[in-house]
Amino acid sequence: MEVNTFVEPLIFELSSPGRQGVRLPESDVPCYELPSDLLRERLPLPEVSQVDVTRHFTRLSQLNFAIDTTLYPLGSCTMKYNPRVNEDAARLPGFALLHPLTDADAAQGALCLMYELQTYLAEIAGFKGVSLQPAAGAQGEFTGILMMRAYHADRGDHKRTKMLIPDSAHGTNPASSAMAGLHVVEIPSDARGNVDLAALRAQLDDTVCGLMITNPNTLGMFEEHIEEVCALVHAAGGLVYGDGANMNALLGIAKPGEIGFDVMHYNLHKTFSTPHGGGGPGSGPVAANEKLVDFLPGPIVRAVPDGEDDWRYEWHMPPKSIGRMRAFHGNFGMLVRAFTYIRVHGEAGLRAVSQHAVLNANYVQARLRGVYPFPHGERFCMHETCAQGKIADAPSVVALDISKRLMDYGFHPPTNYFPLPKIVPEALLIEPTETESKQTLDRFCDAMLQIAEEARHNPQLLKDAPHSAPMKRLDEVKAAKELVLCCVIADDE
């Protein structure tokens, strides 16, 4: 394959003195001197034309992998297609132009949407109440843990400072627990990818605040003993936190609140299709059962009778609320998109989402099995499948080589090295989602199988990949050790 060595010039390299891309109008307000401590004598911004800027950023966008251009099988991230009707709804002027400080009486439409979304989310996962405030999944986790801690404190049980977290959990779980001042204890997985029940029992005492668990877990497996796990934690006086990042496998099929979870966050930007990536935007509402509903962050929206057949919507602070988790009321545009997605699909449609997500993941697993190892025997997976980047007769090839080569075939790589190597060495976590056709999945699987053949006969081809990207493989170790976080321009340039 011919290597693409042409690299587009940076925007600074296109600069030419005196060139302009836009002419600002004359100021129609009085001019004032700016504070001297905010001014710099030299600010070397590029001087470029409008066409230079347009072409530069258009080229950059064309270099990106995106869900609108190709399969994005990033395991644990649920990178599904975002229907454009969601965007149309979010751009309606009454939603897009509504100021967050608008009085409740003047924002009844927005509050009605939020109230109905709270109701839908509570029903979908089997909980008593929902707060839409958290801005992302990680903040939703932190919120749930603060609620668990507040619950124990409210009962005068201050010695519960230990959080149990399976080794198959999402990586933010231990960080969120530590931020809340809790001591994290890792629980290992058993040979079938479930929580090791013996190890769990050994840690259950009167210091346990609770257990944080992802179900399905990051191995793509449904916890076979999940009801027993919840019962054991509850018997010890602890609470069960559900990481809802993998909810795309359960819609209309299982309700975590009925299984035994006390609190759970949703990732609206995953399960309910709102666009995400690159750090945002996100939305991580938190749902709670009867034990914890009074501790939800507020304010939340409630409906009160307004006349014989009408309702009005108002802000309400739960009686034992942990308070606000952020300014205003969540990422409202994400809430509109998720609401639209739920209304378009309805009950039967949401169930079909999960059924097809699980079917697609199992199809990929079936096609790759026998060429790529799968670490937990012949178990069916849920919405994602965890393969290993180990190929027979190609001992030098690792997961990273396979992923880099996959880019040459036009696919975004799956998640690498997660779950952690101590659970799955050379992990390739693949999540196709329900929005991909069989034809697309076949092209992906064909590429993966072809890469395995290449690994056996020409491993260096994989070691040198990607070949078609504007830049060849980077030294990721050096990049991590020698951080360059800004562009430095010498004084004589």
TrEMBL record:
Residues 174-277 form the Aminotransferase class V domain. The modification N6-(pyridoxal phosphate)lysine is found at residue 270. Pfam families: Aminotran_5, GcvP2_C. Its cofactor is pyridoxal 5'-phosphate. It is an enzyme of class 1 (oxidoreductase). GO terms for cellular component: cytosol; glycine cleavage complex. Residues 354-457 form the Glycine dehydrogenase C-terminal domain. InterPro entries: Aminotrans_V_dom, GcvPB, GDC-P_C, GDC_P, PyrdxlP-dep_Trfase, PyrdxlP-dep_Trfase_major, PyrdxlP-dep_Trfase_small. Its EC number is 1.4.4.2. Keywords: Oxidoreductase, Pyridoxal phosphate. The keyword Cell membrane does not apply. Belongs to the GcvP family. C-terminal subunit subfamily. HAMAP family: GcvPB. PANTHER family: GLYCINE DEHYDROGENASE (DECARBOXYLATING), MITOCHONDRIAL, GLYCINE DEHYDROGENASE, DECARBOXYLATING. The glycine cleavage system catalyzes the degradation of glycine. The P protein binds the alpha-amino group of glycine through its pyridoxal phosphate cofactor; CO(2) is released and the remaining methylamine moiety is then transferred to the lipoamide cofactor of the H protein. The glycine cleavage system is composed of four proteins: P, T, L and H. In this organism, the P 'protein' is a heterodimer of two subunits. This is Probable glycine dehydrogenase (decarboxylating) subunit 2. It comes from Candidatus Thermofonsia Clade 3 bacterium. The gene is gcvPB.
